[in-house]
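HOLO CASE FILE
Compound: 3-methyl-2-oxobutanoic acid
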Amino acid sequence: MITLTTLNKYKKEGRKFSCLTCYDAMFAKMMQNAEIDTILIGDSLGMVVQGHDSTLPVSVADMAYHTANVARSNKHALILADLPFMSYSTLNDAIANARTLMQAGAHVIKIEGGAELIGIISTLAQAGTPTCVHLGLTPQSVNVFGGYRVQGKSDEAAEKLLNDAKAVVAAGASLLVLECVPAPLAKAVTEAVDVPVIGIGAGADTDGQVLVMHDMLGVTHGRVARFVHDFLSDERNQSRSVEGAFALFHQSVIEGSYPQQQHQFN
Ligand code: KIV
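Model generated. Tokens follow.
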């Protein structure tokens, strides 16, 4: 079974690790068979499962329901679950809602933001709850950003993101997710912190890689982000099966053949 200790060891050894989003039992079981290292019950379920335009309508009860479904069926991966929009605006909310997700089966709670989260991170750490902090393009702030855009492009924004990363790790964060940031910035953050960093649209130098499950199976409509690769129809997935696609993703991340230059922002 993969734990935070395993991921920290992988970081020291330079062994990359895989992460996929997952929302139900059957896919969770297939991910176990494919040896996916970490699973994220992402609030992206608001879009890919519930059909909303953003992650904002997702509730703590939704997250707990899907977390429990996944956790029952996968005993291999480290399980991360998102605290949804406005469910950690106060310390009391953060504690109560993190408890709900941990009791549903999460091992780590993911929250979006930067240095403003340090009170929440240290309180949860003292209460036995590890956090993963999501930086860069944080989808819960889509209305602040005015759309889903690459973050950290200017020197000032890059410096702020690097400082935020250091501050949340100093406060006790156990993992970071970096979404849609230039690859050189993701590399600098990954080298600057001693906790594992998971990238999505952040280049090849982060310690782990995450994709939304539907995206990497080609189950999408409309514009496909440049960092997405369809592992289901990849010819290396000889069985053309879903489990084969998960295994190919895992193998590609570990051997460093995903992501490639064309998947990153510079
Ligand atoms: O909710 C989610 O699926 C995520 C990933 C995109 C990292 O936060």
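CASE NOTES: The chain has a mean pLDDT of 98. The beta strands are 17-21, 38-41, 78-82, 108-112, 131-136, 175-179, 197-200, 208-211.
CLOSED: yes
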